[in-house]
Design brief:
Blueprint (H helix, E strand, L loop, with lengths): L6 H21 L2 H28 L5 H6 L7 H13 L11 H14 L1 H5 L1 E4 L5 E5 L16 H6 L1 E5 L13 H4 L3 H26 L35 H12 L10 E5 L1 H12 L1 E2 L5 E2 L7 E5 L8 E4 L5 E4 L6
Parallel strand pairs: 1-9, 4-7
Antiparallel strand pairs: 2-3, 4-8, 5-6
Helix pairs in contact: 1-2, 1-9, 2-9, 4-9, 5-9
Length: 332
């Protein structure tokens, strides 16, 4: 029927747009990235416009119904900001800062909706320029006489990391019809685009970031030869099966750092294609009562699918070891 969208076609189109964004990020093609992101934002905008029109047509303006659709009450600062955008007929030239509450909600939605970001140490570092971390193999606590000097020992136990190094840009095309919907709907659009764009870009950075003007990904070798700011990939270890012996030797043992720490849980990050072709059959068992149970492994591990992981590779590690600090300049 005219005017009725096929959800499957819409989802397929969105997945294709997301794949284009991932490809552009991996290729470092700025123009391709911008075009793909604008296309994704346009698709989200059209969805929201149709949703708003449907609610108006059916006269559903109840606050509870709106809340169920992601339309939340705005703070006075948020109202002021979005009204400034509407009066300006776009984001360009708006001097008002994006309220911190909007940015915080985006970070909350990112973490709640993304398994990989939920697993790692993902921190909102807005307003923070340095982050102190423990130096892996050094124990900053030690026994000694009360008169022993401690400063040098403690200095060796911690690292200071700058958190203001890289910039992630996103594009927010906005139609006049979107502005006409008002501040609440505009807020939903802004958050939806930022969440989707950041989801894709951050996942790619976490998994395969080169280190050049972007974070260093899980598959990169921190001790490898850096060429023009780009870190090389780690040397992969062949994993022929998922037996206790193979996983213990090739996954768990290296993570203990030669017995210097206990490893209680790990994440296995794989491409969806590899998950369904290789891991799913090997980790799914039929129980005695006739039910299938999936994700069964002989080690304490959580499997996470990521389109950013190259096919044929898997990253195994302690999730908390990977730190990603993300902040915002509060300007769109």
């Amino acid at each position: 029927m005219p005017g009725i969208l096929n959800p499957d076609q819409n989802m397929q189109a969105q997945n294709e747009m997301k794949s284009n964004i991932v490809a552009a990020l991996q290729e470092g093609d700025t123009e391709k990235f911008a075009n793909a992101l604008v296309a994704l934002a346009g698709g989200i905008q059209n969805q929201i416009l149709q949703e708003a029109q449907s609610l108006v047509t059916n006269e559903m303006s109840d606050s509870r119904i709106l809340a169920e659709r992601g339309i939340r009450p705005l703070t006075s600062a948020e109202q002021k900001y979005y009204n400034a955008v509407i009066n300006n007929e776009g984001f360009g030239g708006v001097e008002e800062l994006v309220p911190a509450t909007v940015i915080n909600r985006v970070f909350d939605e990112l973490e709640q909706s993304h398994a990989l970001l939920q697993a790692i140490t993902f921190v909102n570092t807005t307003g923070v320029t340095k982050w102190i971390t423990k130096n892996g193999d050094v124990n900053p606590a030690f026994w000694g006489k009360l008169t022993d000097a401690i400063k040098k020992k403690l200095d060796n136990g911690f690292n200071v990391v700058n958190t203001n190094l890289y910039k992630l840009s996103a594009y927010l095309p906005v139609a006049k019809s979107m502005l006409n919907l008002g501040p609440e709907w505009l807020d939903k659009y802004v958050r939806a685009v930022l969440v989707e764009a950041c989801n894709i870009a951050l996942e790619t950075a976490v998994v395969s970031g080169t280190g050049k003007d972007e974070p260093i990904g899980m598959i990169k070798d921190l001790n490898g030869a850096v060429v023009d700011g780009v870190y090389p990939d780690k040397t992969a270890t062949a994993l022929s099966d998922l037996t206790p012996k193979s996983l213990g030797k090739n996954v768990m043992y290296p993570l203990t750092k030669n017995g210097k720490r206990k490893v209680s849980n790990v994440i296995l990050v794989v491409n969806p294609a590899d998950y369904w072709e290789k891991l799913f059959p090997a980790t799914t068992v039929l129980t005695a009562d006739g039910n299938y149970v999936y994700g069964v492994l002989p080690i304490p591990a959580t499997i996470i699918e990521s389109v950013a992981m190259p096919v044929g590779k898997m990253a195994a590690g302690v999730a908390a070891d990977y730190f990603l600090g993300v902040g915002s300049s509060q300007k769109i």
